[in-house]
Amino acid sequence: MQEPVLDWGKLAPLRLRARVLADGLFAGGHRSVRRGAGIEFGGYRSYVPGDDLRFLDRRALVRHGKLLVREFETETDRSVSLILDASASMGFRGATAPASKLAWVGLLAAALTRIAVHAGDAVALDWVGGAGGPRLGAASGREAFERVVAALESCRAGGDLVAEPGLLTQALAPVARRARRGALIVLFSDLLDLPEDALEAVMALGARGRELLVVRVLDPEEARFPYEGPLRLRSLEGDVITETDAAAARDAYLAALADIGETWRARVLARAGRWVDLVTDEEPLSALQRLLESSS
Question: Rounded to whole angstroms, how far apart are CA atoms 75 and 77?
Fold first, then answer.
């Protein structure tokens, strides 16, 4: 059975919306998806007249009476790898949301691509689950933005990560093999209905000098549980049906949701990664600013 067409809601047309969103960030002075200048400490060497005095190691002078200069290495991998969770739960759109979760993160991903390309970075695109959207290797230049937009427009939400836990590994393993030291990896997901080893699999993306940004995205109904009275809830993944009363279930649900978020956030930050929590009724420009300004 073919998966339903992605619900773009108020976010279409994607290409135009993404350009306007990215250009709004350019006007505000935000120029890069990447944090810092992509430079890391590379060791010491003896001072040579004419060296920049800012890089003298004063402690070495005091301890050993030697003039040593700190050297830095520019990281060579200027790629940005975007990974979108396109499993069935990401197709959800509540009554007050502007679009489905996958469409909303698709807009952010397209805008990030435009910003990255403007900065000279190559952009790759991968999916967790989903149907229709092709995987794209890292590419730069004007065509990269068009390729990413076309892929996002063709994707549909689908796949059950609980019933098919291998989908997550299949998506993340190639990214870990491809991305080298200095690469930025951005994962967009609701972090719901994931296999038991999901946290460890995602944390591996931030190893070997790669920079990891995890973006949890929830629909307003998922984030706030605004329901009243008797409920019959069916999970989009895992095939679970629950009948309950909203008032009786609200506190336990919100506590469990907060616990999931805090567990992920703590692990991401402990690995020097970046974490952003978003809800899809937030203005996309504000959300994009938070992504670019996020830090551990």
Answer: 6
Strands 184-189 and 211-218: parallel
Q: Could you tell me the two tokens for 168?
A: 């997550």
> Nearest CA to 32 among 143, 114, 137?
114
The structure's pTM equals 0.82
240-294: pLDDT as tens digits? 888 889 999 999 999 999 999 999 999 999 988 999 999 999 999 999 999 988 8
Helices 142-154 and 14-27: crossing angle in degrees, nearest 10, is 130
What count of residues does the chain have?
A: 296
Give the span between the Cα atoms of 24 and 46, in whole angstroms. 46
CA dist 46 and 48 (Å) reads 6
Long-range contacts of 153-156 (CB under 8 A, 24+ apart): 153/14, 155/6, 155/84, 155/86, 155/102, 155/106, 155/127, 155/130, 155/131, 156/2, 156/3, 156/4, 156/5, 156/6, 156/86, 156/91, 156/130, 156/131, 156/132
CA atoms within 13 A on the CB side of 293: 11
Which 3 state secondary structure label does DSSP give 85?
strand
User: Residues 191, 219: contact at Cβ < 8 Å?
Assistant: no
